[in-house]
Amino acid sequence: MKVLIQLVTRIEATLAFAAAIILAAVMVIVSADVAMRYVFNQPFGWSYDLISLYLTLALFYFCLSRAFDQHAHVGVDILHYYVSRKTRLVFNAITCVASAPVFALIALECGKRAAATFAHHDVLAGAIAWPTWAFIVLAPIGAGLLTVRLLLNAVAYLVPLFGGPETIPLPALARSDEGIEQAAFE
Amino acid sequence: MILGLVLVTLFAFLAIGTPVGFAMAISGAVGLYLGFGPHVLMGVLETAPISAIGSYELITIPMFLLMAEMVLLSGIADDLFKTAAAWMGRIPGGLGIATTLAGAGFGAICGTSTASAATLSATSLPSMIRQGYEPKMAAGIVAISGTLAMLLPTSVALIIFALLAEVNVAKLLMSGIVPAFVVTLTIIATILFLVWRDPSRAPVAQAVSFREKLVLLRGVGPMVVLFAVVTISIFTGLATPTEASAVGAAGGFALAIWRARPTLGQLRHSFERAALGSCMIAMILMGASVFGYFFTLSHVTQDLIGWVGALHVSRWVIIVIILAMYIVLGSFMDQVAILVLTVPIVLPLVKSLGFDPIWFGIVKIVTAEVGMITPPIGLNCFIVARYSGRPVTDVFQGTMPHFVAHLFAIAIMVAFPEIVLWLPSLMMH
Fold first, then answer.
1. pLDDT in tens, A44-79
2. What DSSP character marks residue A123?
């Protein structure tokens, strides 16, 4: 269990690093595009599709699971102040168990769609024939990894209820010192 | 029946702390499955995860978040208060006014109010308390000044509203400037009123030489230039908001390299934080998209509009009720979450009553920001309490005069929509 969590964490960290590089690439491409338009009157013809399809989706799906692990997804935790730690573990386990099938279905359906477009050699209409599968496949990668993370976390939250060790800490409450430290610079 | 079940599911998941985007995706999926069958659900889950995210305009959000990260990394934001204090310190309540101006300046670069409140807490609050300011008053000023961030052109909330409401992003970003000015004046007027009632609350600061003032002004100059470049390029149409945000991020990056000489590790950390913040927002938009399919197929919005139309109540009563609801929501929910949960339902209703969507977006955001300082759980007050070491009740007491003053400011914006709509009406495109 611990090894699995470490493996998933490492994959998430690698993908998040890739997302950081993608973010830098978007900044450079869009700024350069503006400069090319005004200085040389020759804007990039390829940047719009590359960014709106590939880079935006990669940025999102590469961070999706990492953001969950780091508790970066915003939620309402008012009830958590009034319940015991055990109840909080149950709440978090329910979140993971209920979310996992939705993201598994997203991974499955988008995976099937990516496979079909790959088999048909589908491309986007336009000056550059961008392959369709190459951006659709980003969804099953991100949603699939999140599904694994959700299932692992569900088990990790349930284990302490039966006397086992707490391998994944509960998210910090927004109005606690730790939560404020996090929220303040997000 | 199914609608009721879906709403109960949504609120149950929100109540147990499920991330907002996840809760919307789960309840939307449940509704689609129960109401329209597995084929519709599969169809939505095959397309929404791509279509909701694959948008060029969406890149504006990560770029503005990156710009804020880079400016924070450069350390230039810390000088904002010092500069404002040097220029304003000699007038009654001057340090408080300087905090407000620093809040506006910081908000111009960093579009989130929690980060703004935290930064002001760390910089301006200790100075005010050292100067002999009444701690409650000082904490109240910091908490309220943080809320200015959501109105200025780098505001993430404004971009999300524009995407949800399908209004022109550039016009919406510009429409927040005059209201931000009104809100700034409201805070300053409240400070002056409080000091007039009891001058001992805010002693005058020590004089600073004119030469020193100029040196400080030159220090924050690059940040002012960065904001001006972004805003003017959007206003004049020289660049789209997406392009302006990327140029702003590149400018912030250059500023960080020039002033702070960060390590590769620090840069990586800042880029990853901006990426994670963007992912959080995109996840909410994706969840809202799945939920939105259920709402559209169920005709909920049209039914609601029909029901309200049959009530024969003045449209002003309805808008006041809606705004009151936003104050309550703002006191315990994140601005982005409020937007995605309510805009798809409330905006068509507001439009059907004859109100302008851009005007509504601005008034809604100001109102929900007031919620962030509303007792007993307004988040900005907790942030200020944590950083100032004051009891949170003190901070809430300090924000009360501003809370009341803001209600007047909102009333003015509701009564005179031109305050919001004048600047975007001057745009050429």
1. 888 888 998 899 999 999 999 999 999 888 777 778
2. B
pLDDT digits 0-9 by tens, B33-64: 999 999 999 999 999 999 888 888 889 889 98
Residue B332 to residue B372: CA distance in whole angstroms? 7
DSSP class per residue in A1-12: -HHHHHHHHHHH
> With an 8 Å Cβ cutoff, are A184 and B114 in contact?
yes
Q: Do B45 and A56 touch (CB under 8 A)?
A: no
Structure tokens at B144: 């309220």
Q: Cis omega before residue B241 (within 30°)?
A: no
Selection from B64, B346, B381, B358 nearest residue B226 by Cα = B64
How many C-beta atoms surround the C-beta of residue B321 within 10 A?
Answer: 10
Give the global pTM.
0.85
Give contacts of B61 with chain A, Cβ < 8 Å: none
B319 contact A CB<8A: no
What's the ipTM?
0.92
Chain A residues whose CB is inside 8 A of the B242 CB are 30
Closest CA to A60 of B295, B382, B48: B48
Cβ-proximal residues to B301 (8 Å cutoff; 6+ apart), any chain? B295, B344, B345, B348, B349
The CA-atom distances, in angstroms, between B108 and each of B41, B179, B254, B365 are 41, 13, 18, 15
**Residues A151/A66, Cβ–Cβ less than 8 Å:** no
User: Number of C-alpha atoms within 13 angstroms, CB side, residue B34?
Assistant: 15
Q: Which residue of A has its CA nearest to B112?
A: A186
